[in-house]
Design brief:
Helix content: 55-70%
Number of helices: 5
Number of domains: 2
Structural class: alpha+beta
Number of strands: 4
Radius of gyration: 22 Å
Shape: globular
């Protein structure tokens, strides 16, 4: 992943993205415990060109928004930086794996560490998506609360809400299935790695 500027990110964000970003920023800024802490943020692009935004309080990450539908088109220089970042991350992971595999099954550990990193990323995306669904449901509740009492306004509002709920239901169904798969893979990886450690200790 690489950092990109707000100007670059804003070119590809739609109104829903801006609304979500502003809502999270406002929520973090409004919390009483954060009054004397520095709130900052940074945009990033992942290897698949997905945009995401991280919020920090005093330099510590406290929130991440993944804009799943927003794909970034990088310049030639940006593509080069992203390719170098991905290659560097892969090399760093490989080096870290080599450092801890003395006496263990190096090939197995390297493979499982890469798998573990992939599953962790999947679970983070699941969590971010669930967070976004929660925000959307909150907005639906707010719209219902603010709907005028005349029949025309109510009909228009509930027609829009019905459409959103159907979309959120499909998304929730997908995310829960994906999260179930990711947690099972995580459990399987934990079992394999733990078994390898036990075998090493017994040798």
């Amino acid at each position: 992943m690489i950092k990109i500027s707000r100007v670059e990110a804003y070119q590809y964000m739609d109104q829903a993205d801006f609304d979500l970003m502003d809502k999270i920023h406002a929520e973090l800024a409004a919390e009483e415990t954060n009054n004397y802490r520095e709130l900052s943020s940074q945009f990033f692009v992942q290897g698949d060109r997905t945009l995401y935004l991280e919020f920090y309080l005093d330099g510590v990450r406290v929130e991440r928004i993944v804009f799943l539908q927003t794909k970034i088109k990088l310049t030639a220089d940006g593509e080069k930086r992203l390719a170098e970042a991905v290659e560097g991350a892969n090399l760093e992971m490989k080096n870290k794996t080599v450092e801890v595999v003395a006496g263990l099954d190096e090939g197995l550990l390297r493979s499982k560490v890469f798998d573990l990193d992939y599953v962790r990323g999947g679970i983070e995306l699941n969590a971010a998506t669930l967070r976004n669904i929660d925000i959307e449901l909150g907005q639906i509740a707010e719209n219902v609360e603010n709907t005028k009492s005349d029949m025309e306004s109510m009909a228009l509002t509930f027609n829009d809400i019905n459409h959103k709920i159907l979309l959120l239901s499909d998304l929730m169904n997908y995310v829960t299935k994906d999260l179930k798969t990711n947690t099972k893979q995580l459990g399987d990886l934990q079992h394999v790695l733990w078994q390898e450690v036990k075998n090493y200790e017994n040798d």
